[in-house]
Amino acid sequence: MTRPWLLFSSSTGQTFRSFYLGLDPESQSSIEGFFTDRPCAAATLARQVLERAPVYELERKQFEAFVLDWIEKKQIKDAVILLCGFFGILSADFLERCPFPVINTHPSLLPSFPGLDHKVQRLAWESVPVSGFSVHMVTEKLDGGAIVFQQPVALDPRWDEDESRRQVRAIEQRWLPRIWMQILRSQVSKEDLSLTSRELRLRHGFFDFGFQEKTL
Questions:
Q1: Of 82, 86, 107, the residue nearest 171 (C-alpha)
Q2: Staple 43 to which of 22, 57, 167, 195, CB 3.0 to 4.6 Å?
Q3: Dihedrals φ, ψ of 148, to 5°?
Q4: What pLDDT score was predicted for residue 210?
């Protein structure tokens, strides 16, 4: 059974659009709402591809209170939240009060290079021969929650920074729909926030995606 879900974004929406169109119809239809914490292109793209879910283009100062109130009024149960190109940092108060687990997609192989997208990808491009993307639980520690999945990308030293970023994003867009569909069919919850990556993956079968490919 596919769980309901919400999506938070702050970006161009390109990764969201590719990701959403890669989901199966059941997963697409189970999205309950799309939220941005600033005016951005992601809201425009979301309105183009979402058939029934509402799109809320909010200001940062009202974002968390609005979302918590919306969840309570809608009486949504057993949902999960995905951060996809979301550049805000959720407060400890929000994470405590939100009844659902929050999961983020991040453009590096954590715990290396936490932080904002452009800074992260620049540091990886300058510093390491292998980067990639991570899907992880969101906690109060910046990009510090248990890791659900990672996919490496070998960085060709002849690439410029923009090409390196495009290659990592392409891998993220390829695999994120399949990862998310498995998460939506799992029982992952806020009770799992204290688990290590190994414990989380064992508890919910996140070691058995069955679609990883060799990229190195």
A1: 107
A2: 57
A3: -85, -45
A4: 55
pTM: 0.94
Nearest alpha carbon to residue 179 among 101, 82, 86 = 82
Annotated catalytic residue within 106, 118, 136, 204: 106
Q: Beta 147-154 vs 55-57: how paired, if at all?
A: unpaired
How far separated are the first and last CA of the chain, in Å rounded? 35
Tens of pLDDT, residue by residue over 11-42, are 999 999 999 999 999 999 999 999 999 999 99
- In the block, residue with structure tokens 């021969």: 129
Angle between helical axes of 117-127 and 161-184 (0-180°, round to 10): 120
136 catalytic? Reply is no
With a cut of 90, say whether residue 211 has pLDDT above it: no
Strands 130-137 and 102-106: antiparallel
Q: Is the CATH number 3.40.50.170 carried by domain 5-109+133-152+168-204?
A: yes
Q: Which of 202, 1, 197 is nearest to 103 (CA)?
A: 197
